C-alpha cells in the first residue's frame, strides 16, 4: 500500500475524535456500516489494528494513537491548501454555541489566539443549555457547539474534563446553615440533578431559592446573600470561597466538555475545531480511553 486513502483517513479521524462509529457516521453524513467497513478495509490493507472495540467502547490502539498525529497533520495541510485556494471566496462566518459559564475558559483562547491566527474567520457566539445546543447543531442553526456531555446519551468529542466547585461569596458562611440556600441554573442544566442528588446522599437539607439562566444572575445572587452555588472550576471568581468535604460539602462528579460538529463541516468550522482540540485536548490524560464516549447504538462494536 503506497498511499493513504483520503476517505478512509476521514473516517478514521471521525471515529478517533468522537470515540464512536455512530457519531462518526453522523459527522460524515454516511451510514455506520459504511464507516465500519472503511475502517475494517483500511486495517486489513495496513495489516494493523487501529481501534479496540471491546466492552462497547471504541478506543485507539497504540498504533492508532500514532497514526492519529499524522492524520491530523495531513488534514491540517489539506485545510491550509484549501484556505489559500479559496481565499476571499469561502464562507467565513462560524456560529459557535456554548453554555455561558464556559466563556471564561474558551473566550480568552478564542480572542487571544484563534482570532489573530485566523483573521478571516468571523465568530458568532451564542449561549444556551447543552441539550438545546445539540439540537441547534443538528438543525444547522449552529456550526459547532461546546456542551456538557450527558452521561446517559453521550455525544461529541471530549476536549476537556472540568471540576465542579461548591462556592460562596467572600466573608460569608452559607454552608453552616441547617438548610442550605442554593442559587443554581434552572431545570435543563445537566449539572443540576447531580448537584441535588449529591446533597441528598450526604443527608444535607437544601432549598433552591434563586434560579437564573445566565451566570451573571447566579453570581449576583451569591454575592448579595447567604447562598451557595456550584460552578465549573474555570468560572469561579478568584476571590470567592471554594468549599469541599472540610466544610461538609459532598464531592461532585467532573464535567465532560465535548465538542459537536455537523455533517461534513466547512473549512472555517474545521479550523476552529482543530484549534479547540489543540488548545484543550492536550490537558486530557494520554491514556484517554476512559474519556471516550460509550456508544449506545446496537452493533457499534461490529
Describe the structure.
With 302 residues, the chain is of the alpha/beta class. The chain folds into 2 domains: 6-160 and 255-291, 3-Layer(aba) Sandwich (D-Maltodextrin-Binding Protein, domain 2), CATH 3.40.190.10; 164-247, Periplasmic binding protein-like II (D-Maltodextrin-Binding Protein, domain 2), CATH 3.40.190. The chain has 9 helices and 12 strands. Strands 4-3-5-12-6 form a 5-stranded mixed beta sheet, with helices on both faces. The protein has a 3-stranded antiparallel beta sheet with strand order 10-7-11. The longest helix is centred in the N-terminal third of the chain and has 24 residues, at 62-85. It is elongated. It starts with 5 loop residues before the first helix and ends in a 22-residue tail after the last helix.
In short:
Helix content is 39%, strand content 19%. By secondary structure, it is of the alpha/beta class.
Topology, element by element:
Elements: H1 6-18, H2 21-28, H3 32-46, E1 51-52, E2 59-60, H4 62-85, E3 93-98, H5 103-117, E4 122-127, H6 130-138, E5 144-148, E6 157-162, E7 164-168, E8 179-184, H7 192-201, E9 205-211, H8 215-224, E10 229-232, E11 241-243, E12 255-260, H9 267-280
